[in-house]
Write a structure and sequence with these properties.
The chain is an alpha+beta fold. The protein contains 13 helices and 10 strands. The strands form 3 sheets. Strands 1, 2, 6, 7, 9 and 10 form a 6-stranded mixed beta sheet that branches. A two-stranded antiparallel ribbon has the order 3-4. A two-stranded antiparallel sheet has the order 5-8. A hairpin with a 7-residue loop joins strand 6 and strand 7.
Length: 361
């Protein structure tokens, strides 16, 4: 945990080991995880296990503001803050033997889960385009039921520019996770003094959970092209879906639902029912039951670090406040959340992963 915590920068405004020049940053925004692999961060075989092959076409670096470029330049390869984490886990229960075998999971196995995104870069892209969308709402006389909402007609220049900028942010996120995964492998190799093949650390899947994508779905019996915006949601495509890598076509897409740092995370697979009922989507996590401020108040006088240690979970974080915000009670119980999506038939349980060590931003 010490090696991982020192190797992978975390926390608000953290800066990484990668220093991007203007040209290399543009390439990264166009290529995503492919850029990372070309730069020596990981293997070419990783790419087939990443949504969209780790790169979504149609990104336009020319639409990115100077401020977003500046924020992104130093943050590639960083975990960030809030609910972002890197977790060493072990498989403590298998629900579906056949699917677990296909994913390469077995009971007692050690796994690593990484949860982070496009960092300050993506945040700035969002901030920049919220202003554009607010103007577009007035320009196109759109009536919104809530002032927190913002939009523009799909074929408008505002919407097309946003999609091209958002794709650049998605590519930044895929590259970011790829770099962090590479350093995680290196940390394990160093600590266990093992050869990469001996260690057997291969990627199971990398999936986005805040992205708008153009997809084909059946609506009222008719095939239609739709913009599916998954915000705090994740894909759950069924067996045979054209967008799945060949290795997973027979079982369906791996679905990752992280819980809180004190309980568990679950690996599931996508289903046909998700396609017919939720546009091929499922939930992305356990979801909060307390705001960050409430959690900090609740944790006053407690040592969350010690409480976790008593459970056998080693935690490293950028600060005490982060641990208070992220304590187990601040989240719904993952078991209940996963049972809902499993029983609803929109994702099917494969394996449960228990935490042993957690790096928090």
């Amino acid at each position: 945990m010490e090696v991982l915590h020192s190797e992978i920068p975390s926390g608000v405004g953290s800066k990484g080991k990668i220093r991007l020049g203007p040209e290399s940053e543009r390439k990264l925004l166009l290529k995503g995880a492919r850029w990372a692999v070309e730069e020596g961060y990981g293997d070419i075989s990783d790419l087939e296990r990443i949504e969209s092959g780790g790169c979504i076409e149609g990104a336009n670096p020319d639409l990115i503001s100077q401020k977003a470029y500046e924020r992104g330049r130093a943050q590639q390869g960083t975990l960030g803050s809030g609910n972002h984490f890197l977790e060493i886990q072990y498989v403590d229960e298998i629900y579906d033997e056949k699917s677990a075998n296909a994913l390469g999971l077995f009971e007692g196995q050690v796994t690593v889960m990484i949860h982070t995104g496009s960092r300050g870069f993506g945040h700035q892209v969002c901030t920049d385009f919220l202003e554009v969308m607010e103007r577009a709402v007035k320009k196109y006389n759109i009536e919104l039921p809530d002032k927190e909402l913002a939009c523009a007609p799909f074929n408008s220049s505002e919407a097309q520019d946003y999609l091209a900028a958002m794709r650049a942010a998605a590519n930044y996120a895929w590259a970011n996770r790829q770099c962090i995964m590479h350093w995680t492998r290196e940390a394990f190799l160093r600590v266990f003094m093992a050869a990469p093949k001996e260690l057997g650390m291969s990627l199971i899947y990398d999936v986005a959970h805040n992205i708008a994508k153009i997809e084909e779905h059946v609506v009222h019996g008719k095939k239609m092209k739709l913009i599916v915006h998954r915000k705090g949601a994740t894909r759950a495509f069924p067996p045979g879906h054209l967008e799945l890598p060949d290795i997973y076509k027979h079982i369906g897409q791996p679905v990752l639902i992280p819980g809180d740092m004190g309980r568990a995370s679950v690996v599931l697979i996508g289903t046909e029912k998700a396609m017919s009922e939720t546009f091929g989507s499922t939930c992305h996590g356990a979801g909060r039951v307390m705001s960050r401020h409430q959690a900090i108040r609740q944790a006053k006088g407690r040592s969350i670090y010690r409480e976790m240690e008593d459970k056998g979970i080693i935690v490293r974080s950028a600060g005490r406040e982060t641990l208070a915000e992220e304590m187990s009670e601040a989240y719904k119980d993952i078991a209940n959340v996963v049972d809902v999506v499993h029983n609803a038939g929109i994702s099917k349980k494969v394996a449960r992963l228990r935490p042993m060590g957690v790096v928090k931003g």
